[in-house]
Amino acid sequence: MTLRHIDAATWENTPTRQADPTWNLPKMIHLRAQEHPGQVAIERRDAVGVWRPMTINDFARRIDDFGRGLIGLGVEAGSRIAILAPPSYEWALIDLACLSCGAVTVPIYETDSAAQITHILADSDISLVFTATSQQAELVRSVADESVRIMALDQGAEREIAEASLGVEQNLLEERRDGVELHDLATIIYSSGTTGMPKGIELTHGNFIESFIQAYDFLPELINSPKSRSLLFLPVAHSLARFVMYALLAGQGRLAFAPDTRNLLSDIATFKPTMLLVVPRVLEKVYNAATAKAGQGFKGSVFSWATKQARAFSRSTAYAPAPEIEVTPGVGVPTADTSQITDPNAAGSPGPSFGLSTRIKIADMLVLKKVKAALGPNLHTIICGGAPLAADLAHFYRGLGLTLLQGYGLTETTGPIAVEWPSDFPPDSVGFPWPGNSIRIAEDGEILLKGVCVSKGYHNLPEETAQAFQDGWFRSGDLGAIDSTGHLRITGRKKDLIVTAGGKNVSPEILEDSLQTHPLISSVVVVGDNRPYIGALIALDTEMLPVWLKSKGLDTVDPAAAAELPLVRESLDRAIARANKRVSRAESIRRYRIVNAAFTVENGYLTPSLKLKRRAVLRDYASEVDALYADASQKEA
Questions:
Q1: Distance between CA 91 and CA 70 in Å, rounded?
Q2: How far apart are CA 253 and CA 257, in angstroms?
């Protein structure tokens, strides 16, 4: 790939491939079937737990059969069809069959509330809804208009579709499919967002295709190799998981789904993926579980030493040579502060010393290989997105010998618009612009985006669409900086920026990301807007708490009682002291409160991608925030 430094604050990555204007997502599946008909594309777990392979040719045929059934039911080109189901083979089948008919699919998260479902059905004018279960169908029926048809997979939906397909000729489906082009609307994804009612984000077939074909050259071993095995457990209603699903099905990879995360470790052990797509919270939980299991004493000391070696090994191998950079005339000094990003050309990684190489082998033998084993025997790459991952945690996983690819993107960018190279790992960076896209840093630090993956706008919201774009650039709402070799670093959210009573601007993410790796902490919310100093609300992890208490020789108690235990307080005090070292005194946490609460997707405090809905927490826990400042003369944390 070739990066172009356009001007002082703008970087562009030129596309490696061009899409045919007549392509669409189902056609990409058929193109693979024509080139590699016997290649296994999907594995499905049967009733006794055995993974059964399905070739791409068989999958393409089933898509066509289902598509003919949809036409037989009266689905028209442009019809809006919703899918409410976990990540599964059936989800992919229904989605691609709908797209084959020229319809537009609208995913609904399993965790969406009745009010959100009502809004989605009405706003996108849904005519047909597929659900996984009859319970989900009943929920939809309770809020849907009588004209909406609802079909549950566990109530014979596939049988009905098969019967409806009998009178529909294949050439009719092919005419429908051939009538869909790159620029046509493929889906409306209602972003759960961290505030308010979800907005419908319109994404075209081209948004997906023109993005994922770049991965054939950029990440060939992950996307375009028959040796690639990927297990999807994140909701494919989310744009990133759906992007990866399409990329693997159209490439040459082998894909499986884990619809129930309670069986995830078993699915990983039996399917043996080479690649996993995760959000940071998954990696945090694996690490925290290992930390708590190690406990105190000699075993805990060995674990701590081993993790230290893993991080050191990662840091010693972090940088790769920068890509070819084309500098255009007029490039000046970047407008954003990039001092926190090391320039890899100025300070290349030295590589591990002989002593470190020896220590990492011992650490692997004693500890690290056991942690890695939980992620499967064949795993070599983790793709992490959806939210920032703490740098220490990133170094730990790289130190296990895994390739960790962090990226940056939004629903509005169809998935990644920046991603790291497999061999490149600059601290605190989410990599380079994805091929075919450009990134600019505005004068106020906001990240502006343009390119093949950027959405055309919001459904039925022309004013919000206009406000979201500035001279053709999408305003991300995120703050960031780019270093002299094109690495993007995310520094926070504009809306989340805290301004203290003393006028200090504070990005809460730096402190929150650092604290999130503590085994006792489930969620942390840094506060302090218009307040004299920075504080924090902490929710304890109810799963890890009993394990941690046992490792300290303490009886199991509930979170409310644990909040009063001196050992719990002392551990949190130390964690906050470590986090405070990453920021200035004015930005440091002075006091904190442990709240007797759990912030989850189900109770509305987390998005489906496990990002905190900060405004909801601050609204409902305002009294806890006030208590942090009720007596500023009290001892600070």
A1: 15
A2: 13
CB atoms within 10 A of CB 353: 11
What does the pLDDT average to over 407-422? 91
DSSP secondary structure string for all residues of 23-38 = --HHHHHHHHHHH-TT
C-alpha–C-alpha distance, residues 173 and 425, integer Å: 46
Query: What per-residue string of b and e applies to 552-570 under the rule 16 or more CB within 10 Å gives b?
Result: eeeeeeebeebbeeeebee
Q: What is the pTM of this model?
A: 0.84
SS3 249: helix
3-state secondary structure of 441: strand
- The burial of 291, by beta-carbon neighbours within 10 Å (0-12 exposed, 13-18 middle, 19 or more buried), is given as buried
pLDDT at res. 427:
64
Tell me if 32 sits within 8 A of 20, measured CB to CB: no
User: Which candidate, 389, 403, 416, 382, places its Cα nearest to that of 318?
Assistant: 403
Stretch (H or E) spanning 55? strand 51-55
Dist CA 400 CA 365 (whole Å): 11
Contact at 8 Å (CB) between 274 and 229?
yes
Instruction: Extract the tokens encoding 167.
Output: 């009178």
pLDDT of residue 81: 98
